[in-house]
Amino acid sequence: MSELPPCPTCGEGYTYEDQGFLVCPSCGEEWAADAAGAPAAEDVITDANGNPLADGDTVTVIKDLKVKGSSTVVKVGTKVKNIRLVGGDHDIDCKIDGIGAMKLKSEFVRKV
């Protein structure tokens, strides 16, 4: 019998296989069986030019961006310092001077 890996979320060793997925009955987590045992490959977030971004980088906005729910606009050329990468559609968390905390899409920034 093959040894199944423990749950990546809760660490319990009661995992079982179900239709190509590994399932943890303790917390309900499901993950692909082919990824079991292999280290999780992180998605590389890139800027508009294809350069990889990292936490703490400084980027420049390459397009005027309207701020949702406000009449302000983030202008082209605005420098954003000390970005934080997160998952999802808007994959950059940042703080812009004069506007405040925002989420940006990496396709609208260029690494400095």
Automatic annotation (TrEMBL):
Residues 46-112 form the Protein YjdM C-terminal domain. Residues 3-32 form the Protein YjdM N-terminal domain. InterPro entries: YjdM (IPR004624), YjdM_C (IPR013988), YjdM_N (IPR013987). Belongs to the YjdM family. PANTHER family: PROTEIN YJDM, PROTEIN YJDM-RELATED. This is Zinc ribbon domain-containing protein YjdM.
